[in-house]
Amino acid sequence: MTKEAAEWLKSLKISESEVARGKNILKTEVLDAADNALCLLESMQQQALLKGQVSSPVSIANAIDNVSTSDVKTVRISII
Amino acid sequence: MGSNLSVESTDNANEPTKYYAGEVRKETTSSLTSVAIAVEGVSLKNEKEALACAILQRASGSGPRVKWGCSPSSLQKQLSSIAGSEPFGLSTFNASYTDSGLFGVVLCSTSNVVGSVSGTEFYNYNKYYFNINFHVTIVDKRSCRMVEIFKNI
């Protein structure tokens, strides 16, 4: 089974519907965290420190929507 | 009180983390074997890419979203058909940091199902294998760069 998992890591086969589901899950996580004041503050701290600017949760959710399926399929994780 | 500490306040330029390949192995007496395979992921520098990698992780199998449910991911279906009637679990993970990232898969099942990752085909990959229980041999002798930010899985 490990071989098949490694093969998958190499090929990153994923379908459109799975990408849509992944987007929904990630958006839910981002927006749910925004409902928690402590989480939101921590996220703002990290963004300010690491990114230099703070994006609102809604704008991050919109950015998630704008990621295309081909973007996900061609994520450059270093296999070779 | 803090004024007694001799802590400097200069900014040191951070060296970017280097990624190496290797293996970690821990023997336990469990009847189940867990294997984690990870590769260098994406950093937070390119936000679009970091989001795409996060989407990929959640799309490809972070387990069921409903209690007693079944994950609809194709990777889960493919691997659970290999597992047959044996207990089996799968999750992908993704960690993105400012200079690098870690992306991979964690599998758990009985040792004969999980199988061995040794074999010549793995010499071709720059991969970081963590071997969490015994019964799995891991081979990656290609030296690469190490992730110093490995977290507990």
Keyphrases for this structure?
heterodimer, A: 80 residues, mainly alpha, 5 helices, 72% helix, B: 153 residues, alpha+beta, 3 helices, 18% helix, elongated
* Number of continuous helical runs of chain A: 5
SSE pattern of chain B, N- to C-terminal: EEHHEEHE
Order of helices and strands of chain A: HHHHH
Q: Could you state the oligomeric state of the chains shown?
A: heterodimer
User: What percent of residues of chain B are in strands?
Assistant: 15-25%
Terminal CA distance of chain B? 37 Å
Note poorly predicted spans of chain B: 118-153
Largest sheet of chain A: none
Q: Total helix count of chain B?
A: 3
Kindly report the average pLDDT value of chain B.
69
**What's the N-to-C terminus distance of chain A?**
21 Å
Q: Rounded to an integer, what's the Rg of chain A over CA atoms?
A: 16 Å
The assigned structural class of chain A equals mainly alpha
Shape of chain B: elongated
Could you tell me the strand content of chain A as a percent range?
A: under 5%
Mean pLDDT of chain A: 86
